[in-house]
Amino acid sequence: MKKLQLYDTYTRSLRDFEALNPPEVGLYTCGPTVYNYAHIGNLRTYIFEDILRRVLTFNGYKVKHVMNITDVGHLTSDADTGDDKMEARSKLTGRSAWEMAAYYTDEFRRDMARLNILEPTIWCKATDHIADQIAFIQKIEANGFTYRTSDGIYFDTSRLPDYGHLGRLDIEGLQAGQRVEMGEKRAPTDFALWKFSPVDQKRQMEWDSPWGVGFPGWHIECSAMSARYLGPFFDIHTGGEDHITIHHTNEIAQTEACYGTHLANYWMHGYFLQLDDNVKMSKSSGDFLRVQTLVDQKIDPLAYRLFCLSALYRAKLNFTWDGLDGASKSLNRLRLAVYQAGPAGAVDEDYMERFTAQINDDLNMPRAMAVVWDLVRSELPPSTIKATLLMMDQVLGLGLADWKPEEVAAPAEIQALLEARQLARKEKRWADADSLRAQITAAGYEIEDTPQGPRLKPRAA
Ligand code: AMP
Ligand code: ZN
Description:
By secondary structure, the chain is α/β, with parallel strands linked by helices. The protein has helices spanning 40-58, 85-93, 97-114, 130-142, 171-177, 220-230, 247-259, 291-296, 301-308, 321-339, 349-359, 365-377, 382-396, 412-426, 430-442, and strands at residues 5-8, 13-16, 24-29, 62-69, 122-125, 146-149, 152-155, 191-196, 214-216, 234-240, 264-270, 273-275, 317-319, 445-450, 453-458.
């Protein structure tokens, strides 16, 4: 079997995957900021991470998957200015920040379930881990990497010689370019670890700390919670491509200042879903597609999952309705290949080997899908195709084993045509029977003979 190789953003290279403590693998995924619904772009990243997890499991690893929920501290600007996204949105909607966080967390989990994304082994909320974050900042402070301004405690990035390595940041260029927006920060790359509550205003979410009442900066939660659940150096850290230059760069800086490690052994990033006119789908713009939008249009969310598998996770993907429509049709074909095959037979080892070679080549899902289609079109017995597809589906996550055609009851007048036809047949009026069948077909139904007698079902497109 081909050995698993993964692309590591930290080294910018494809590396053989070696677990630190096999068979266990520690996997940390940056979770959603819960001030709004997730859009299907966000979910593309979670689908990529789900495929990664399934591929690891398929390779025999036991994955401990940790995902955080950012329910405080994600500022509206990456320059550590502006309001906290949660508080800002709460003001806008009149709902409390706590209520909103709970609501959008539930909605996110519902979207995950509809896309067959496995639940992480551990969920962790930033607001449940304030003490951990404070303790983490204290260690960074004791190691001499912080300074205080009038609005918070900041990380002094000039103290870390390799700051910005993950994002290959041009520190000098940044320094020259961004002086204006810096406020009291000493360098544009410095970032908030703890922000003070404004003096003239009580925040909904704020806590006491050794530095004064306030709230944690966005990046610290991931360093603190990953260390708590996976230790200061674990196997794989993931997120979307936008996290490379700021969020993950700063997570690494914090953990380096605290423990001297660069946090994870492999860094993996999913690339963006964009609208076909090159527009980035963004949560803060408020105008975006969600899983519910698809459901409202009678599109199965799993067709979107399959659509995502048509591209490499390391390439941007253009969303198109045509593409999604094609994925819906493909999904139906796969479902029928399993559903209509009767009992499953033996798995075809050759096809499995070809499939595994592709998924283990840095999750090459487009090529893995090409193997799937070769299999479906092959001359192998349907029972073999079925068994092999079901095994592949452990990675694809399309729920092929569970699918059943929806029982759509035919309208009463079509049902009446069927009964009239049965009667015509019984009375041997064959011409009438044929004409009734033609009427049923014209209305978009076909007659299926079942052990319980003839039934109507919608005609295949
Ligand atoms: P957020 O809730 O904004 O923190 O984002 C959740 C996840 O979605 C992060 O891993 C982001 O990197 C990722 N993300 C944001 N926008 C997109 C997009 N258009 N396509 C794919 N992933 C995205
Ligand atoms: Zn994070």
